[in-house]
Amino acid sequence: MDKSSKKNNLKKGGVPGRSHISFYFFYTLFCIFVRPFLKFRLNKRIEKIEKPCIVLCNHGSFTDFFYAGTVLHRYNPRFITARLYFYNKFANSVLRSIGCFPKSMFTSDIENAKNCVKVINQGEMLVMMPEARLSTAGKFEDIQDSTLKFIRKMNVNVYTLKLFGDYFAYPKWSKGLRLHALVEAEFDLLFKAGEPSALSQEEFDEKVINTLTYNDFEWLKTHPEVKYKNKELASGLENILNVCPECNKKLTIKTDKRRVYCTECGFSVNMNDRYAFNDNPYFENFQQWYDYQIEQMRKEILEGSFKLESKVQLMHSAKKGNHQIRHAGDGVCVLDENGLTYTGTDDGEEIQKFFPLEKIYRLLFGAGEDFEIYEGTEIYYFIPEDRRSCVMWYTASILLKEIYNK
Known about the structure:
Strand order of the largest sheet: 1-7-6-2-5-3-4
Strand content: 25-35%
Largest sheet: 7 strands, mixed
Number of helices: 12
Mean pLDDT: 92
Distance between the termini: 49 Å
Shape: globular
Helix content: 25-40%
Structural class: alpha/beta
Radius of gyration: 22 Å
Oligomer: single chain
């Protein structure tokens, strides 16, 4: 099959036929306006890529797609991307033109599965970030079982693009890019075609997870020369840190430039040039603080009668695609051992929407923005009264699932 026929078949099959002009236009913009302000270093590369193939990339930062594009642009990659970004018509056109196609995260998405299979069957490169969300605290999160099963079932060449320092260059909770931050990458072969099926699912899962597991604080220890000079280095941390270690009050944490403090008891610490605390008697860094919060919530759930509740605004996809999302209603969300319940309005109707715990893998969240869940191709995007609480809905969904679905 010649290249033009292959491209046309990809279009007819619902998978975007990537426009090389569009791709290189946006790649050039990235090289001009973003890349000069970062130090990107590819420490390990493969000279010859055999397609069809799947490339697995860890996901510490929103800019990971740019790093992946930098390494893989010669191979005509197709990227799985969160469906949220396709609701806007303009963004939809741009994303599809550079080879992206949508996925409703953490729910069954037949359209996406078919498109992934088509990419492989057409002999192309499928790029996945299997964690399917940005890292909260700079380390590997987890991969859904169904994702691992799909990768193994494809039984093709599997490569890994492992990034280090990308989280620190642009953390999920931050107000912007850390200029001149170092980001390193390693591109390697994990499986040759035929090898995945020769392993049991457990053996396959273990190798994938062990390979992709990372911790940017551990990476930073190996680079004592790296420093982050941003004056606002701690700004936004209140959107992932929600329990004061001094007085144990919730949602009392605020930040001011490099200072993190509690409005209830006055506890205060400062962050240095390496994302560590100079004067914190409890934690060396915010990752340890975040892990402490998880364990505190775990204890609270195990004690019984755990419940998160908040007034929320409900947002849905924009009907005409002029915007990404739109206001659809107001109500109350409750998350407990049964699942997530929304009671309120939805496009003028009074509803009660229930998502049972067994059907929730994770609630997605934007730091200081929202928590969300997909149903088919529609998103239920909830903005709580105190936006700092969004991370609590995410961690609670993990722990409730872990504890009650055993």
